From TrEMBL:
UniProt GO BP: regulation of translational initiation
Signal sequence extent: none
Taxonomic lineage: Bacteria, Bacillati, Actinomycetota, Actinomycetes, Bifidobacteriales
Family that this chain belongs to: Belongs to the IMPACT family.
GO cellular component: cytoplasm
Protein name per the record: Impact N-terminal domain-containing protein
Alphabetical list of InterPro entries matching this protein: EFG_III/V, Impact, Impact_N, Impact_N_sf, Ribosomal_Su5_D2-typ_SF
Pfam families assigned to the protein according to its UniProt record, in alphabetical order: Impact_N
Cross-referenced PANTHER family: IMPACT FAMILY MEMBER YIGZ, IMPACT-RELATED
Highest rank taxon of the organism: Bacteria
Entries under SUPFAM superfamilies matching the protein: EF-G C-terminal domain-like, Ribosomal protein S5 domain 2-like
Residue ranges occupied by any Impact N-terminal domain in the UniProt entry: 23-130
Amino acid sequence: MATESLTVIDGPDSPAVYEHDQRKSRFIAQICHLADVAEVGDIVARVRSAAPKARHVVHVAVLGIDPGSRDVRMSDDGEPSGTASRPILEVLRSRGLTDCLIVVTRYFGGVLLGAGGLARAYSAAASGALGAATQAVLTVYEQYDVEADYSAFAVVNRIVSRVGGRVSRADYTQSVRCGIVVPESSAGSFERLVVEETAGMVVPRPRGAIRMPRPLASDGDA
């Protein structure tokens, strides 16, 4: 299974927005990160409520890392089949995007666009919204619970940095109890190094995998 895909980190309350005009019709596309398919209905309802004069509110949601088994939810909202949500989905697939939702509201301008024109318009709107969004690498991380004394925790913390993970939470009392996330590709090395370098005093307890986005490095980054 692939461990990395692309997503966007723009949230539902501050989506990336792009407007495409075609022969007097306006297509306003919004794209945001989606953590759970259960959020789709509420987000689409909010967009619809904010655009009472829109003729159509089309949406496409995609979730999941594995391209062969992603969960896709889509609606043409009355547009002819194949002219609205399908072109949007093709934009997402061609760019390798997942865990995101695109909603496109259409204001009819009085001129019929035809099937080809509609498909091109929805595709252009989706592409524009994606271009305006902040993209990120969606990585699978393994989660661990760790308990250690302070000296052993210092060793664990150095290992976490070496394998590209991070401490997600920590409780400092007589010992340190913490949550750690490590890229799936480094999970085996992390477990082995912790046991070896603490002489078996610390054994990470796996809690399962989670998907987390991290922004793409800019050209100026090392």
